[in-house]
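Hi R.,

Here's the chain you asked about this morning:
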Amino acid sequence: MEGVNKAARICQILIGLVYLISGIIKVWEPVLFYWEAIPYVQMLGFGRDTWQLVAKSAVWLAPIEVGLGVGLLFNWCPKILLPISTLLMAFFTGLMVYAWDIGASIDCGCFGALVERSPGEAAVEDAVMLVMLLLAWWRLRDGDMAPWSGPWPWANKVVMGLFVAALVLCGARFFPELERLEASDLKAGVRLIGLSPKGVDVDLSEGKYIVELFSPVCGHCIQAVPKINAMVEDGTLPRIIAMTNFAQDSPQLQEFKSRFNPQFDIATISLTDFYRLTYAHGYPRMAYIKDGVVQSVWERDFMPNLERLREITR
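And here is the predicted structure, written out as tokens:
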């Protein structure tokens, strides 16, 4: 049985690493995790008067994951942490399965902006990790764990110290940015991170860009096409990239290209990212991005003219 015990301990270590990495990413970018959490909060049926509060509360899951991850790695209080870790993973798995079952087009949010995965992909991964945790929990009986897997003498200080540090860092990164939660994550001075545009080869963190958030089925967006085409044809402006949550091969986007002949690049971003960049504003929205930082933002009724754009982006 020693081989099974060692396998269980290895599973515990691997899941500890997953929890630790996931928690650190969310602690460092809690605002992005907030936006990732919102679709799931809404999916669970929370009303508009409560879903923001629930999503803000979910942010504090990040330091908890850090504490669980470190605790699992050091085998600290396994009779407490293994059941908690297993139940939490079961909740994540059930949530992903439900999102997959209803066909929700949202990011899993498990690793913040580092990795984008569909609910289906995340459901399979979470199910595997749940089995690994169940194995570790099952072997956690007096005398069943291998001797070399015992708790480290100083594990208590390490686990509690890193948990408190993660809690403080999460608060320090989250509370000063609360304004970003009320009126979208696209505003002057914000570094535009967490985007993975598909269909266009672009790195928004370097250089100058004019970005438009649009939908191919939006009347105001369609009306803006001639104006944006003129900006492209001007030749003096930074590269113009339109972003939508519609897939590149979707019938709606294909029809939009066929009927209106856009001269600008069109990239696909996730529904979650599209939501966080248009929340409380609608679309189309336009922004000037320089080295990944938003310099200016314009709404659909206040789009700048060519002369103004030349002046701003020169």
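One quick note: Residues 2-178 form one domain.

Cheers,
M.
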